[in-house]
Amino acid sequence: MIFDAPDIDYAGLSPVIALTAGLVVVLVGGLISERGNRWLSSALTLTALGTAAGLLIWQLGEPDKDLVSGALRLDGLAITAGLICIAAAAAVVPLMLRDPAPEEAGFGETHVLLLGSVLGMVLLTQAQNLISFFVAFELLSIPLYVLCGSHRTRPGSLESGLKYLIVGSLGSATLLYGLAFIYGGSGSTDFGAIAEGIAAGELASDSLILVGVALCAVGLAFKVSVAPFHQWTPDVYQGAPTPVTAFMAVATKAAAFAVFARFFIVALEPSTADWQPALAAIAALSIIVGNVGALGQGSLKRMLGYSGIAQGGYMLVGLLVASEIGTSALIFYLGAYTLMNLAAFSVITIRERETPFGDDISSVEGLGRNRPSLAWPLTIAMLALAGLPGTAGFIGKLFLVEAAVDGNYIWLAVMIAIGSMISLAYYLRVIAAVWMQPTPKRMPAIAGAAPEADGEAALAAGPTAAGSAVRGGPSGGRCVPVLAVILIAAGATIVFGVYPDPLVDFADHAGRALFG
Amino acid sequence: MLNVILWLPLAVGLVGWLVPRRLTGWAAVAGSLVSLGLAIGLIADFQTGSGAIQHAVSESWIPDLGVRYELGVDGISLFLILLTAIGWLAANLYSAFQAPDRPRNYFFQMGLAQTAVLGAFLAQDLLLFVLFFDLMLIPFYLLLGGWGSGDRIAATMKMIVYTLIGSLLMLVAAIATAVLASEAPGAALTFNMQALAQAPLALGDQQWIFWFFAAAFLVKMPAFLVHGWMADAYKACPLPVLALLSGVLSKVAAYGFLRIVLPTFPDATIQYQEILLIIGVVSILYGSVMAFTQTNIRLIAGYSSIAQLGFITIGIFALRPDGADGAVIQMFNHGLVVLPLFFIAALLYDRYESDDIREMGGMARRAPVLAVLFVIVAMATLAMPGSANFVGEFYILAGVFETKVALALIAGVGIALAGYYALRLFQQTMHNRLPEGAISRDVSWREAAVIAPLVACIIAIALYPALILDRGEASATGSVEAVAIADCGEGALVNSNTGEAQVLADPACLERYGIGEGSDGDQPPGEPDQTTVSLGAGP
């Protein structure tokens, strides 16, 4: 037997290598002082993310290739979804700058966890083997559990971390169980070979495979938070530090949807007729549950949590039609969703620090009069999430509806429209608060006066805690990096709504990767 | 040219952020003046007698989704563009005198709104139309909520939920139309309205798509049964915005029926013709009755709009060229009478500090000019013979009489009722005794500058209604023809001499639609009983 020297494609692995190296450097850099130097740590993190993004973009022009003996696949889907995750991470680094959570937990550690999670996401988008799939899935999840609980002085944050850990582990276990069934049925761990195995054994509708498919769908549904596996989402979103919520809301969805698409469309292709109706039902349920659940929410983060469930339902429509246009629509929508959600969460981050209302909707009342630079981006984000024209959200919905009709799922297209109608009620409530309500009289930060009062107390207690100096009035330069994120995200939402071509081309890489 | 017309208002709105606050309003007025000039230029440049799309602009926009940036103007949209320009000039001028709170934002929203409305009238790509149709809501939502009075937040929410329910369904319907049409062999994915009209879908698909579109348009009008948002929104809306909402926005819906629904879904149109006619007639009766029982001047105007749009609806769904042409002129007329009516309402509010006509009266004593202006508007509203409204309603009723005599007779009652509520409104406000505390004051030059030109337009169009009728005829007939061909067509052929696509059709059937009478004489008796109709009026 002759062993060939393993042929390592360093070019293909370079983004992963860059993230890993960055992770180590940031970890060491964090040791410089007790809590890490926030500027140095942020700069190193951004450099690592920027390098990885640059390398991914470089690979976008190259032909698709298998890496590490077929455990990973670097193709259009992996690169586009990976870039969305990296962009989301890069956007939350400035958000974390003055945030109380990393101020307490230390910047080095926070950024390492962030990079670790991004590494997991990038690997997950490339995974095409059950083993690499699961390992990347866990690498993505575990740092997030810690990040959610990183605001240690606030009970809500710890609760959120614990809750996410328990529910996430349940999801992972379910997924792993399902993967075992699929391996048992098909006798292979490679996505392509699984499809061949199922087809060759005529097992497409065999109960062994179907149980595996169902369990995998449940596990992945937990991660992308679609109904009925969504209950953790609002609580975790509300409790986690807002920058972490922003990251979780968009990047996790992007990575999990990418592997969801690759696994179901490539590996489980023979069973399409079986899982398609089931996913359609989940999508419809998610649209209803998410939108109805968001209606009565007073907390903006909870509201966005429920809205994320509904948006997950829309995106699932793009996935389940299993067509080139569907996958492109999914990635386009993920890109647009990232932009609009980042804009919204960034505004919430600033208002949390400026007002005693935490993330309650009253924190944005009267914003149109006092802080137009925040009011406009928040308005744009809400209009885009609602899918109104002139924004990337409209083009995204258009893309998804076209994919649904093309895939003979007209009823799901109608569901998307009905969901959007319901969603207007709560998105417009925010816009009404911004433009049509007077600024609330400033309330003293009495414990219990606002949902986040405990956090506010902690905020006011620590002299280094961000925001205590700026609380109570329009802040000056302290928010400049966050403002930059807000303006870029909101601006891009409008630009891609008017001139969507670049984002459409970007998303097309994903569709071609699976169906080209 | 169309690009300039479309984007100029938005550009002016953006410029408004750069000029001093004091001058923002005047920048907007200057912008609207240029818009009006361009609209008049468009009319001067229009080729009368042609039903084709003119000044077409066609650019690639989202090629992957088959969406193109296509603009054009035809006889139906031509005067609606003029109406938009007139309406916004008046509203911006009035607002500039009033100097609203947060002027930059206000005039930016006005500019965005004008661009959106113009976009809906100009779009030749179905998806682009839906986009602009939905886009209109954003500025109107913010204007109503931000500058309205009373219970504005609840009113805006009601309005937006009602209207968007229709619009979002329309989005799905528009996409379904294009995708289903592209499934035919050899067809590419396109949203071009004319291309979609050339190859209608199967009846089963047309049926549900028809109702999705109809829902959007009927809510926007508003028509009876889906007018629930109207009263609250009208009470809360700032008056210049309300004038636009009632005078211009409602026309987008009527335009949509004539321009999109008839040609694109002809079979469903025939099937549901009677339902739409009944909705129209009921709207006329309900709107008229409500208009003479209400005492709030805004609601009187609002319910009279429901009645007037009912007339336009039955004109369109008479499915005859005269009815459709009457609808085209009536759309313009109604906008032109409602605009000054709301500015007069604003002026009366300044004098009586009330919208309730029971608290008004005697204003004519010292305000002869105001009384004259108002009486002209009132006479036009009740469609006095001699006014252009009379011409419009005459054409519409003539069309309906040919198809459904009973409905035409009932609709005729609406004209009598219109006389009652228009005169009641005039008498209650201008005659009788002046209430205590109110002063009879004639129009100031500022008020006159807004209202007098609008009244002059009413007189001008009354003197020369053919200006609109001639230009609208070919396009309006084209829409009806599309329905007629779907019903009567018996196969297509291409004229070997001209290369023009023609359809063989049964002349007796075409007769029902009022099309092809002219060719009867040319056909010698005994010839095969088929006649040819040029297919549409496509480029």
Descriptive terms for the model:
heterodimer, A: 516 residues, mainly alpha, two-stranded antiparallel ribbon, 21 helices, 2 strands, B: 539 residues, three-stranded antiparallel β-sheet, 20 helices, 70% helix, globular, disordered C terminus
Q: Would you spell out the secondary-structure blueprint of this structure?
A:
The complex is a heterodimer of chains A (516) and B (539).
Chain A (H helix, E strand, L loop, with lengths): L9 H20 L8 H23 L4 E3 L4 E3 L1 H21 L3 H6 L1 H20 L3 H19 L6 H32 L4 H10 L6 H18 L7 H8 L2 H26 L4 H24 L4 H21 L3 H31 L12 H4 L1 H15 L5 H15 L3 H27 L16 H9 L18 H19 L2 H15 L1
Antiparallel strand pairs in A: 1-2
Chain B lengths: L1 H14 L5 H24 L9 E9 L4 E7 L1 H24 L4 H20 L3 H10 L1 H11 L4 H31 L10 H6 L4 H18 L9 H7 L2 H26 L1 H28 L3 H21 L3 H32 L15 H14 L6 H16 L1 H26 L14 H19 L2 H23 E6 L6 E5 L1 H6 L18 E4 L5
Distance between the termini of chain A: 37 Å
Main sheet strand line-up of chain B: 3-4-5
User: Sheet with the most strands of chain B?
Assistant: 3 strands, antiparallel
**What sort of overall outline of chain A do the alpha carbons produce when their principal axes are compared?**
globular
Pairing-aware structural class of the strands and helices of chain A?
mainly alpha
What is the tally of beta strands of chain A?
2
Question: What gap, in angstroms, lies between the N and C termini of chain B?
Answer: 19 Å
Q: What value does the Rg of chain B take, in angstroms?
A: 23 Å
Order of helices and strands of chain A: HHEEHHHHHHHHHHHHHHHHHHH
Q: Give me the count of strands of chain B.
A: 5
What low-confidence regions of chain A span 5 or more consecutive residues with pLDDT below 50? 444-477
Portion of residues in helices of chain B?
Answer: 55-70%
Helix and strand run of chain B: HHEEHHHHHHHHHHHHHHHHHEEHE
